[in-house]
Write a structure and sequence with these properties.
The termini are far apart. The chain is built from ten helices and no strands. By secondary structure, the chain is an all-alpha fold. Helix 1 runs parallel beside helix 7, helix 6 packs antiparallel against helix 7 and helix 7 packs parallel to helix 9. It is globular and about 55 Å long.
């Protein structure tokens, strides 16, 4: 009887991660409807090709994460592991496209005299990809510790959701006629929103295991730090030097 109950709880936990993955898919695809999908559908999206590549890889990753969590929930762990190398390749490609998209944004902003604003704002996406890479890399290192691995992978999705949720807030709150990169402060509302996803995971842990897993404690702290860093350092000479160096990578 006890073994049956524990097995049911483990199955419920596996499906919780599938549910979270579905939420990520809704946020990722839904958040970009006003600024990307609707414009692509009407032929009015005027962004560079790298933005299409960047978007395709990121949307694919979100669906990949859903597929991977579903394989675990269905008890197909060997298949989940076999697809792991594909996930590593996809995550690596994501990281490169973030840098390229940031460089593109700076170049475009320079044409309207707002290059410095774009360099300041680039700290948002570049710090997010650093956090994603750190959490993802640690998750791979702990791939034999399911309790650690799955929570790190969930946390790695959080910085990716910031951009999608930010698009909704920008559409709703941006002043009429606004052009160019927004101030870094606009990231505060979407950051608060995506943090609710971390809190939801911690509450679920509390309900199912009596306390949040340590991964959520230090990993959630890393997420919060990544959200604070842009606010504190975007306009500093140090960051502007880094952003200029990143821009120079494109020649």
């Amino acid at each position: 009887m006890v073994a049956t109950t524990m097995g049911a709880e483990r199955a419920e936990t596996r499906w919780f991660y599938v549910g979270m993955a579905m939420v990520f898919v809704v946020i990722a695809f839904g958040g970009f409807i006003p600024t990307y999908w609707s414009k692509v559908a009407t032929g009015t999206f005027g962004g560079a090709p790298i933005l299409h590549i960047h978007g395709t890889i990121f949307f694919t990753w979100t669906l990949f994460y859903l597929a991977q969590t579903s394989l675990i929930a269905l008890g197909r762990t060997p298949d989940h592991r076999n697809w792991g190398l594909a996930g590593i390749s996809l995550a690596t490609a994501m990281s490169f496209t973030v840098v390229l998209a940031a460089i593109n944004s700076i170049k475009v902003a320079e044409t309207i005299g707002m290059g410095d604003q774009a360099r300041q704002f680039s700290i948002v996406s570049l710090s997010a990809v650093v956090l994603f890479a750190g959490l993802f890399g640690t998750a791979i290192a702990y791939n034999r510790r399911a309790d650690v691995h799955k929570r790190l992978m969930l946390l790695a999705m959080i910085p990716l959701m910031q951009a999608a949720s930010a698009r909704v807030f920008m559409v709703l709150l941006a002043p009429p006629g606004a052009v160019g990169p927004p101030p870094v402060q606009v990231t505060i509302p979407p950051s608060i929103f995506v943090n609710l996803l971390v809190i939801a995971a911690m509450v679920y842990d509390w309900r199912t295991r009596g306390r949040p897993h340590p991964v959520y404690v230090w990993g959630g702290g890393a997420v919060l730090l990544q959200e604070i860093v842009p606010l504190a350092f975007a306009g500093t000479a140090g960051w502007m030097a880094i952003a200029t160096w990143v821009e120079s990578l494109a020649g």
